[in-house]
Amino acid sequence: MAKTGKNILSISQLSIGYGSKTVANNINFDLGAGMLCGVVGVNGIGKSTLLRTLGGFQPKLSGDILLNGKPLEKYSSSSLSKELSVVLTEQPASKNLTVQELIALGRQPYTNWLGTLTKEDKQQIQASLDAFLLNELRHSKCHELSDGQLQRVLVARAMAQDTSLILLDEPTTHLDLYHKVQILKMLQELAHNKQKTILFTTHEIELAIQLCDRILILDGKDHPFGDPCQLIEQKHFDQLFPSEMVQFDGKTGSFKVNK
Amino acid sequence: MKGSRTYRISFVLLALALLCAWLLNISSGSVSIPFTDMISTLFGTSPEKASWEYIIWNYRLPKAFTSILVGAGLSLSGLLMQTLFRNPLAGPFVLGISSGASLGAALLLMGVSLFTGYTSFSFLGDISLAIAASIGSFLVLLIVLIVAQRVKDTMALLIIGLMFGSITSALVSVLAYFSSAENLQRFIFWSFGSVGNLSVNQILLMGGIVALGVLLSILSIKSLNAFLLGENYAQSLGVSLKKSRLTIIIATGLLAGGITAFAGPIAFVGLAVPHLTRQIFDTMEHKVLIPAVMLYGGILMLLCDTLAQLPNSASVLPINAITSLVGAPVVIWLLVRKRKMMF
Fold first, then answer.
1. Number of separate domains in chain A
2. B77 pLDDT exceeds 80?
3. Does any domain span residue A134?
4. Residue at A75 is within a domain
């Protein structure tokens, strides 16, 4: 088994699912600090279930999840909130918050019982606003924002939570190509500059190949994991979709529709 | 971080408005007492007529304090429910807590004579009515709490609460159908709601219950703010869902149940005041909202009670009717003007 010393996240023999229904099993991978990792796979293969399991929202079926060398289930909800932050597909329940207020909620794990923001909290919030180009929008209400802007706000909130691991469930859905690239570039910068480990599910396989340090392919069998170029060489993307519809071109790293 | 100073000014203005509403409330009533005499009575000097002193100290002051407690407590319970269920329609009535109180009161006023044949009400003081209503609301609260432990989904809990509400009101209807006209009338008068007729001890007891509810709410400020993002996000921010949901539900039960027991089921305040407050303060931060809804609730209740007390006449309109007649148009006007539900 892999060494867990330097790994932020270490997954071995993991089975995920709901009760008696196994969605995917035998998932193995390790992620070090500062790595951007995409999780790809067809609809219903278990991408979101994996993310929900890693985020502690549902129990694993079997196997090990080690976060900073400690089993995930050993964390209390308050100590976990300092190690792991999430960006979910669900919209925030109230959009009557301003951008700054929403990002400030990311500091909750560190504030006192009344939620008073310290100088350090305010610096973190400012850093998140800067990193995701939200300074101009700081006093706008969330219901006034476009989808792309709101997504940036939600990621900025996760950054303000200042955790070693950030999980994002489909952060690029509903966005146009420009904004997809924008958000992924920002995630890449966050991972590389701040040494955050970032794991996100996506359907943008071509973008993930270009931007990610690691990719996990959920294929229902052995779930290959590795460097995108390696995975291309090993022809793992070729069988991702039924080949009569789309074919993967290893030279360009893109999919072509069969005419 | 945004403008805590602007909030400070708003709070000073609100506190002044509360004071004015309080003075207005005390100065109006069936017996007209000159304003200067009223002020001097409040400061301890005896007025021209001894009866005025008696009226102010024994009737009007307790009534004014009850109004403030009722308005502040019901508004706060409405705010808690709306945030917990992330539903702008939620109010103290949704968990069936108020219906539970009604059932308790109905059982005492109509059921006792029905089942035992007792027709004499000599043993039924106002205290026993309050106790019956409290037991009713806390029984329903207890059932809701047990269900809340098992049901993870807050929306399901909301619907279950509504179902309990229907069951209890159905039972009340059945009781009403079989009860005598005299008993029915007593129950209907209780259901009109009233902020008068409470003894000092009753007010102190209700004040204690409300204070406990406020304390629990203040302890929940952080989780209330986290709930604005949704339960999953709240959990990822370190909120223990079970514990904070329980605390918030108990706080609501204490506030809504305790007040309904003493003052009857007063409609509308719990639903409307949080909306009014959010429209005017334009924030979702519960550190600001909790004191703001309490002040607004107190002011609204004092004004409604002043209106209910028809000037210079002995008749008092049901407070329940006034709160709805005054408050509902205000909320409609605010929503139409802003065209948006602020939540």
1. 2
2. yes
3. yes
4. yes
- Nearest CB to B232; choose among A88, A109, A117: A88
Residues A48 and A73 placed together within one structural domain of the fold: yes
* Nearest residue to A106 (alpha-carbon basis) of A128, A90, A88: A128
Q: Report the residue of chain A nearest B243, measured CA to CA.
A: A77
A99 vs A102: CA distance, rounded Å:
5
For B241, nearest residue in chain A (alpha carbons): A77
The answer to the question of residue A237 being in a domain is no
Are A33 and A109 within one domain?
no
Pure H helices in B85-111: 97-106
Inter-CA distances, A32 with A7, A10, A67, A242, B148, Å = 4, 9, 11, 33, 40
pLDDT tens readout for residues A140-181: 999 999 999 999 999 999 999 999 999 999 999 989 999 999
> Which residue, A78, A75, A53, A77, is CA-closest to A63?
A53
Query: Is A115 within 8 Å of B284 when comparing Cβ atoms?
Result: no
Cα-trace Rg, chain A: 18
Say if residue A129 is in the same domain as residue A193.
Answer: no
Residue B92: per-residue pLDDT: 75
Same domain, A55 and A9: yes
So what's the pLDDT on residue A4?
41
C-alpha to C-alpha distances, B139 to B96, B144, B197, nearest whole angstrom: 10, 9, 26
ipTM of the complex: 0.93
| A79 shares its domain with A191 | yes
Residue A94 to residue B228, Cβ atoms within 8 A: yes
Are the Cβ atoms of A81 and B237 closer than 8 angstroms? yes
Give the DSSP H/E element, type plus range, for residue B298.
helix B286-308
Token pair, residue B321, equals: 């009717």
Token pair of B239 as six digits? 């909120």
User: Are the C-beta atoms of A64 and A19 separated by less than 8 Å?
Assistant: no
Residues A78 and A95 placed together within one structural domain of the fold: no
| In contact, B134 and B215? CB cutoff 8 Å | no
In this structure, the answer to whether residues A41 and A149 fall within a common structural domain is: no
Give domain limits for chain B: 4-338
- What is the extent of the structural domain holding A43? 1-83+163-173+187-229
CATH class of the region B4-338? mainly alpha
CB pairs under 8 A between A and B: 88
- Compute the nearest-CA separation of A255 from chain B (Å): 35
Check whether B311 has a pLDDT greater than 70: no
Q: What is the mean pLDDT of residues A99-117?
A: 95
**Cβ neighbours of residue B159 closer than 8 Å, sequence gap 6 or more:** none
Nearest chain A residue to B221 by CA: give it: A114
Provide the pLDDT confidence category of residue B95 given band limits of 50, 70 and 90.
confident
- To the nearest whole Å, the CA of B27 is away from the closest chain A CA by 39
Answer whether residue A28 is part of any domain.
yes
Mean pLDDT of chain A: 93
Same domain, A20 and A72: yes
Orientation angle between helical segments B4-27 and B61-84, nearest 10 degrees: 140
CATH of the domain at A32: 3.40.50.300
